Amino acid sequence: MINAVGRDIPEEVMAATGRDIFRGTYVNDNKEYTKAAPTVRAVCDPKRSKMVASIREAIEKCGLKDGSTVSFHHHFREGDYIVNMVMTEIHEMGLKDITVCASSLGKAHDAIVPFIEDGTITSIYSSGVRGKIGEAISNGKLKNIAVMYSHGGRVRAIEEGRIHIDAAFIGAPTADEYGNLRANGGKSNCGVLSYAYADAQYADKVVAITDTLVPFPNIPASISMVNVDYVCVVDEIGNPNKIATGAAKPTTDLRKLLMAQYCTDFVVAAPYYKDGFVYQTGVGGASIASTIYLAEKMRKDNIHMSLGLGGIATPMVRLMEEGLIGKLVDTQDFDLGAVESIQAHPDRHIEITGSEYANPMNKGAYVNKLDYVILAALEVDTHFNCNVITDSTGLITGAQGGHPDTAAGAKCTIVISPLVQGRSPAVCTDVTTVTTPGETVDVVITDYGIAVNPARPDLMEAAKNCGAPLYTIEELRDIAYSIVGEPRKIKFGEKVVGIVEARDGTIIDVVRQMQEYVFDD
Amino acid sequence: MINAVGRDIPEEVMAATGRDIFRGTYVNDNKEYTKAAPTVRAVCDPKRSKMVASIREAIEKCGLKDGSTVSFHHHFREGDYIVNMVMTEIHEMGLKDITVCASSLGKAHDAIVPFIEDGTITSIYSSGVRGKIGEAISNGKLKNIAVMYSHGGRVRAIEEGRIHIDAAFIGAPTADEYGNLRANGGKSNCGVLSYAYADAQYADKVVAITDTLVPFPNIPASISMVNVDYVCVVDEIGNPNKIATGAAKPTTDLRKLLMAQYCTDFVVAAPYYKDGFVYQTGVGGASIASTIYLAEKMRKDNIHMSLGLGGIATPMVRLMEEGLIGKLVDTQDFDLGAVESIQAHPDRHIEITGSEYANPMNKGAYVNKLDYVILAALEVDTHFNCNVITDSTGLITGAQGGHPDTAAGAKCTIVISPLVQGRSPAVCTDVTTVTTPGETVDVVITDYGIAVNPARPDLMEAAKNCGAPLYTIEELRDIAYSIVGEPRKIKFGEKVVGIVEARDGTIIDVVRQMQEYVFDD
After folding, report:
1. Given this chain, do its domains B51-243 and B254-488 carry the same CATH topology?
2. Could you read off the pLDDT of A209-261 as tens digits, one per residue?
3. What CATH architecture is A51-243?
4. For B326, which residue in chain A has the nearest alpha carbon?
5. Do B206 and A33 touch (CB under 8 A)?
6. Domain B254-488 grouped into CATH 3.40.1080.10
7. What global pTM score does this model have?
8. A45:B26 CB<8 A
9. How many CB pairs under 8 A join A and B?
10. Contact between A58 and A70 (Cβ < 8 Å)
11. Domain spans of chain A?
12. Is A490 exposed, middle or buried (0-12, 13-18, 19+ CB in 10 A)?
């Protein structure tokens, strides 16, 4: 069936995954549903301890068995040890058909590929599947169809009951023996535990894993003891150097600086640039450069951002400290500056849950309040659809993150991409994989100029006045094709290896198995 | 049927309320159950507003009808305007058979008695029903049997699905237009919104009512926008003078000072008095005096409390500021000192939810970690059962609050009561109404001396060494009876007007309709 972004979703994939096709970003507004609920056990005897001696003991006490679903968060990013530790134990116990429900998976988890190959893991839900796991899925090695959801979509899936987590394994920089978990104060600080909050609320069993046990009560806690069954101490939960890196150096790439300039000039020209605006940006070089340019404008114009949100890095922290940003709400810390800030400014730099950030089915998330979001994309097409998941060969290599969530929420969604990435055109007729529907993308900014979505004539004035070369999206594509040529259509195998879930759980696109590359002609 | 505290619970009351008899405080430890879940509506269209023009509009949008259940919190204490405003509107709309599910009801709500009499309100769940509502229930004016639960039992009832809230009306000192609610920063600060948290999580519809609308985002929030449907601004949500009173003056009542001395001497002699102990006390004169005495001992012995918890008043705040207490976790603010402290010390004086405080069926509440709790009681009997709900005539006049919760959790539960209250013996053979089972009460402290529960021989040593006159509980009763005589048995009507719920939702006792007083002889 053809969905709302024009993709033909095979009916057998709809049947196999129990999902409808994507029918538009806002069709579920005001939809009524009953939330899911975990099956839990009471701890009313004050003498009972939650401490377990090993991850093995925790798994056994959770009663995991063939077919169980386990969950993980990705706040330790490339430094995470938790997923591998837990999955190795599950593998050694001989469990099969395990579903891994992660907020994201990356290169830190290459070690679990053999567990995919031997049937320990047969289903994966993740925002993204970078590294060798992405390759394994793209090569058809996972038994069931992988599901790639956005950060908001993941919480929605858990809160709706689409995914039921049997046991959540939550790595915590610090924990007390009763399960109050904080993201700071240990050896592997990660700043926040936002994405683990839903797991703690909705999993039947919750296991805290820490390398730094601290005295009770470990508060204010990101995750409360009232949702934690077991606490396990291990030697190391992660590699601090890969969890929070030093602040990214400002880019010197002229293409990125040019796009940053165009982006800021457009933001300032657009009608939402006024005192109190709400803003989100990423941590790529162009995004950071545009934040710096924007700050210069804000100082000059005496305009302040009331709120910055999302994943936080040092440039946004500095603007808050300067008084240019009122508050930051934080779902992920990208560097040490952000981790330090959330400890230093509890009144202004505030951890929020994944649901508060981006869940499309709660009673209103922060993304709904965005004036601007600045996003990157691997590809954007003439329908303004974006791809952030597959590379130009079709290999799964990226993650949705909050891309579709913020795009849907923001009054003005700006996608930045150099017109040509490597030898591929970033603006094209049809993206390889749709992750973010064009109806939620308002402006595309490239190093050659900008294009405004015709659905947003109200933004044309700003685009004309901002000083950047203004094109139609088709013109930008044509320039890209004139530089590197029109890309040949990729040949995939027939087998669908993954679906891209829209925020609401419907299928916005499928990812097919990679084939040995064969030229058409 | 005879329950675990020896009360005969009529089978028709068990049938009418769908409840088992109380079978012991810890029988449900490790019990498995599936949590309840609300039926909600998604707000995924960023353009939609949550503002409503009036309480009437909010009620209409919530779809309330005959038989609906509405809920309220009691953080505004004697200064609350919310209950009366909402119930008056519901009454004017002509709705009938409404269930009021309040965390507590008091004299501030005398105005709703006519709505009980005319069938607008036919069921009441509350920790207590002081004032004219208590009289109305005791006099048989409420159609259905009233349910009196503890603070922890209330959250348990909501989380278990025993009570389903159709609409929660949450008074908030400050709110933004998207429903982020704080207990501070407005005209009627109440410090925390702990008891409203479960309502926000589990009610189908949530209405925020404020008199101080502040810019978005109103954070860190006690209640998050993700659980709030509507925001309504009114002129006044409460009377600040009755919400947070000035700090209570230290008592000069010699009986109370004597009990305070006995209490502290026992605490210090008992085995839990060591660095890092966890402690809770009330706000009565004797409790505050004993806190002051205890602080003197702690300074002298260089012993520190790691945590103080529960409802907070100025004396505990001062000890935290002095460094004698590490942290305070707070579910209710009794005076301005507490309200000011929670704003001044976000790292050490921390709001917790009602579930975190006392829910017996979550995965572990703060009460489970108490070393000592100091409680008051209207009556305590020779089985160590306590009554905090009915006076000596059987009139409903008090509230369970956290009494049974903290008693069940603490390693050492100390009940303070003058041996004779007015002309009634406070230590008696059988309390009028059992609210807290004797198995959870360890020591009784009176102005004549102390008694230790024989079930706690491990505490006898401390009792012998502490310097207070040591009696058996029967001896204390006999002294009391020798002063004021043995009370004659109260004659009640046959009709059961209320049940006292144990923490786990079973029936620990019933309250019968008052009768014109007739002497037996």
Report:
1. yes
2. 999 999 999 999 999 999 999 999 999 999 989 987 776 777 889 999 999 99
3. 3-Layer(aba) Sandwich (3.40)
4. A217
5. no
6. yes
7. 0.97
8. yes
9. 206
10. no
11. 51-243, 254-488
12. middle
